[in-house]
TrEMBL record:
<feature type="transmembrane region" description="Helical">
    <location>
        <begin position="116"/>
        <end position="141"/>
    </location>
</feature>
<keyword id="KW-1133">Transmembrane helix</keyword>
<feature type="transmembrane region" description="Helical">
    <location>
        <begin position="59"/>
        <end position="76"/>
    </location>
</feature>
<dbReference type="GO" id="GO:0006605">
    <property type="term" value="P:protein targeting"/>
</dbReference>
<feature type="transmembrane region" description="Helical">
    <location>
        <begin position="206"/>
        <end position="228"/>
    </location>
</feature>
<keyword id="KW-0812">Transmembrane</keyword>
<dbReference type="InterPro" id="IPR006304">
    <property type="entry name" value="T3SS_SpaR/YscT"/>
</dbReference>
<dbReference type="GO" id="GO:0005886">
    <property type="term" value="C:plasma membrane"/>
</dbReference>
<keyword id="KW-0472">Membrane</keyword>
<dbReference type="Pfam" id="PF01311">
    <property type="entry name" value="Bac_export_1"/>
</dbReference>
<dbReference type="InterPro" id="IPR002010">
    <property type="entry name" value="T3SS_IM_R"/>
</dbReference>
<protein>
    <submittedName>
        <fullName>EscT/YscT/HrcT family type III secretion system export apparatus protein</fullName>
    </submittedName>
</protein>
<keyword id="KW-1003">Cell membrane</keyword>
<comment type="similarity">
    <text>Belongs to the FliR/MopE/SpaR family.</text>
</comment>
<feature type="transmembrane region" description="Helical">
    <location>
        <begin position="27"/>
        <end position="52"/>
    </location>
</feature>
<feature type="transmembrane region" description="Helical">
    <location>
        <begin position="162"/>
        <end position="186"/>
    </location>
</feature>
Length: 242
């Protein structure tokens, strides 16, 4: 359950991109490895309530690990959607097979870029390492967390961090687009017969695309920096919650 939820939180492991047999084989293989690392405990002594609590705890830990690693992937896609909303290109929605839902053109492009960088930078290896290590930090038999205040603060901050990342990544382009809107507003004041709305779509689309291409290196570096910090952050969180 822990491994399945962690991988399910990553958009690159959606049902549309990886066959079920391949995905399930990966999950079962990692599950067998992690099970061999567990200390011996008596299954027969567990009650039905204990099993339900263990399943809930495993799902929670898997969700936390997957969300911590997938936050930057979702943030970069969200940044693209924010940019497209400002451009006015959200009318051209497309279905992203990696994410499994509708997104805008720049959102799909930046989301795909984030997934590729995550794979090629060794993000999957870090994820597997953290998953295996999490069984040592929080074994299967340890059911109830301590819910320490420090752990809860780290957990809550991660949800806010997703929108902060999306806003920061899109902020330079949004600033330029706001300046364009201001300039076109002044033009429309003195040339009211000019169709500024149609003109703005073309200008902002061109400038937005050019800015995204100029900032690609920064986007890649942002994903790399975030992926590197995830293992240490998760160790601290799981250690505080267990």
């Amino acid at each position: 359950m822990r491994i399945a939820l962690a991988f399910a939180m990553l958009p690159l492991f959606s049902t549309e991109t990886i066959p079920a047999m391949v995905r399930n084989s990966i999950l079962i293989s990692l599950g067998l490895v992690s099970l061999a690392l567990q200390p011996a405990f008596d299954f027969a002594s567990f009650t039905a309530f204990d099993w339900i609590a263990i399943l809930a705890k495993e799902a929670f830990v898997g969700f936390v690990i997957g969300f911590f690693f997938g936050a930057v992937l979702y943030a970069l896609e969200a940044a693209g959607q924010i940019i497209d909303a400002k451009i006015g290109a959200t009318m051209a929605q497309v279905v992203d097979p990696l994410a499994g839902h509708q997104t805008s053109l720049n959102g799909a492009f930046l989301g795909r870029l984030a997934n590729f960088v995550f794979i090629f930078s060794g993000g999957l290896s870090l994820l597997v390492g953290v998953l295996i290590e999490s069984y040592a930090i929080w074994p299967i038999a340890n059911v109830f967390p301590r819910l320490a205040p420090v752990g809860l603060e780290l957990f809550e901050a991660e949800f806010g961090r997703l929108m902060v990342l999306a806003t920061l990544l899109s902020a330079p382009i949004l600033a330029v687009l706001f300046v364009i809107d201001l300039g076109l507003g002044l033009v429309n004041r003195f040339a009211q017969q000019l169709n500024v709305f149609q003109l703005s779509l073309s200008i902002k689309s061109f400038v937005g695309t050019a800015m995204i291409l100029l900032l690609l290196g920064g986007f890649v570096q942002a994903v790399l920096n975030d992926v590197i910090t995830r293992p240490a952050a998760l160790r601290g969180l799981l250690g505080a919650l267990r």
